[in-house]
Amino acid sequence: MIYRTDYHMHSSYSDGRSVPEDYIFPAISAGLSEIGFSEHLSLFNNSAGLNMNPAIIPTYISHLQDLQKSTKGIKIKIGLEVDYFEGKEEEIKSYLNPLPLDYIIGSVHYLGEKTVDVGPEFYEGKSIDRLFEAYFDSVVIAVSSGLFDIIAHCDLIRIYGYKPSLNLEPLYRKLAKTMKIHNVAFEVNTNGRNRPLADFYPDRQFLHVFRDEKVPVCVNSDAHMPSRVGQYFDEAYDLLRYIGFTEMAVFDKRVRRMVPF
Ligand SMILES: [Zn+2]
Ligand SMILES: [Zn+2]
Predict the structure, then answer these.
(1) What are the pLDDT digits (tens) for 99-127?
(2) Which residues, other chains included, contact 215 with Cβ-Cβ below 8 Å and sequence gap of 6+?
(3) How far is the CA of 39 from the centre of ligand 1 (A)?
(4) How far does the centroid of ligand 1 lie from the alpha carbon of residue 238, in Å?
(5) CA–CA dist 39, 28 (Å, integer)
(6) Rounded distance, CA 102 to CA 163, Å?
(7) What domains appear along the chain, each with residue ranges and CATH number?
(8) What is the pLDDT of residues 42-88, one digit of tens each?
C-alpha cells in the first residue's frame, strides 16, 4: 500500500462540522496511513471567529491522545494550524513549544485586519499585484520565523481567482528557497478545488519551483467535514509524480522524515 497522510483537518474543536471520531472511518476508507488534526488557533486576532479557544487546547490534546490509544488501522497525529502575526514570534513560540504536538502548520490568513479569504470584496478597489506581493512577503516572514513545520495553502491569495499582471515566478522562487533554508514543508492543499479558485494550492504552474529547490511536500485536504478527508488525493499525487516529486514529509513529535510515494 502507498503511504499517505492527511495532516490538515478541522473538527468541531474549531470550525469543522464533526467530532474527531467521525473522520477515522472515511480516512481508513480513503487508504490513508496517518491523519492529523490541525485546529485553527489565532492568538492575536479572532475576528474571523473560526478558531479554537486556547483554553480548551489541553482538552483537545487529551481527547486525541485517547483516540490514538483506541484506534486501530490508522495513526493519528496531533497538530494545530496557527496564524502567523509578525512581531509576535516570541509569544507564539512560548505558547506552542510546551505542547506535545506532532507538527505545527503555519498560516497567513490575515493581511491587515481582514483575512484574505473573508470574501471577494476584500479585493475590490485594491491592486491585485500589490496584494500578491504583500501576501508572499508575509508568508516568507512566517517561514523565516522558525515557528512552523508546514506552511498551509502558501498562495491562499489566489482563492477568488483574481489574476495579477506581474511575473509570479520570483515570488514562488523566493518562498521556496526560504522554505528550504528554514526546513519547512509546503502542502498541496486540495481544498482549493472546493473554493471559488477551483484548483489546488499552490498554483500547479509553479510546483516545479518547489521541486527545483527541494522543498519537502505534504498532501493535505484541509477537510472541514469527514466526507472530504483525502479528497482529490489520487490527482494530487499524480500531479506531484508528474512534476518529479518522489517522497513526502511525515511528522512525529515535530521531527520530519521523508517517505517515498
Ligand atoms: Zn487555513
Ligand atoms: Zn485549514
Answers:
(1) 999 999 999 999 998 999 999 999 999 99
(2) 176, 179, 180, 184, 185, 186
(3) 9
(4) 24
(5) 20
(6) 36
(7) 5-260 (3.20.20.140)
(8) 998 776 678 999 999 999 999 999 999 999 999 999 999 999 999 99
